[in-house]
């Protein structure tokens, strides 16, 4: 039995290794250094490097995706939306991880613009592509809450907590308690809230 289990584990690692190489994610210097700069909290340097990457490799959807984050950080919503739309056009269809990230990014931008229904649509696609990401559910819960779909919002908060019992959903739960239209929903929300305290 140990041999079979070991073989299955090796096959899973081999499959993920092949899939990662099939996707051909970029390895260019400007892209790698730009993402590194962004991860290190240096958006100015990241912008410079990713802009150079996009000028040199305009088909790099991954660079456009990160550029959307930077433009959003600097408050340039038009450029951020253009960048994320480019990312969604250019990212490989089979790269669920990054496509989910791009839909999540655009969904959160739409939340900031108070386009609740459009945000929920993008976040639903992010969830379809990556159903294990707690942040996708939290963001969609916010969209549903603001659109008056309290039951769906509560379901997403519950799912987020099931995926990560330490997920920061306190503000969402308090907003749901204040907005819930029925005592029955208030009681269900209150019960869930006591579980996270």
Automatic annotation (TrEMBL):
Range of residues in the leader sequence: 1-20
Q: Which UniProt keywords apply?
A: Repeat, Signal, TPR repeat
Q: Which domain of life is it from?
A: Bacteria
Q: Does the keyword Signal apply?
A: yes
Outline the TPR repeats, range by range. 100-133, 134-167
Q: Report TM segments.
A: none
Q: What is this protein called?
A: Tetratricopeptide repeat protein
InterPro entries to which the protein is assigned, alphabetical: TPR-like_helical_dom_sf (IPR011990), TPR_rpt (IPR019734), Ycf3 (IPR050498)
Q: Does the keyword Signal apply?
A: yes
Q: Which organism is it from?
A: Phocaeicola faecium
């Amino acid at each position: 039995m140990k041999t079979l289990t070991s073989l299955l584990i090796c096959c899973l690692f081999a499959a993920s290794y092949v899939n990662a190489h099939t996707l051909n994610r970029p390895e260019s210097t400007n892209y790698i250094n730009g993402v590194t700069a962004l991860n290190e909290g240096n958006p100015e340097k990241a912008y410079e490097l990713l802009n150079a990457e996009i000028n040199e490799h305009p088909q790099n959807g991954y660079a456009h995706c990160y550029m959307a984050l930077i433009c959003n950080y600097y408050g340039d919503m038009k450029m951020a939306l253009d960048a994320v739309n480019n990312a969604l056009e250019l990212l490989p269809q089979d790269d669920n991880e990054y496509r989910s990230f791009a839909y999540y990014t655009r969904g959160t931008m739409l939340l900031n613009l108070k386009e609740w229904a459009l945000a929920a649509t993008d976040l639903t696609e992010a969830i379809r592509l990556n159903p294990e990401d707690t942040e996708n559910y939290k963001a969609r819960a916010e969209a549903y809450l603001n659109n008056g779909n309290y039951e769906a919002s509560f379901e997403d908060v519950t799912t987020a907590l099931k995926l990560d019992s330490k997920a920061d959903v306190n503000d969402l739960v308090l907003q749901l308690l204040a907005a819930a239209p029925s005592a029955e929903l208030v009681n269900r929300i209150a019960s869930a809230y006591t579980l996270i305290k």
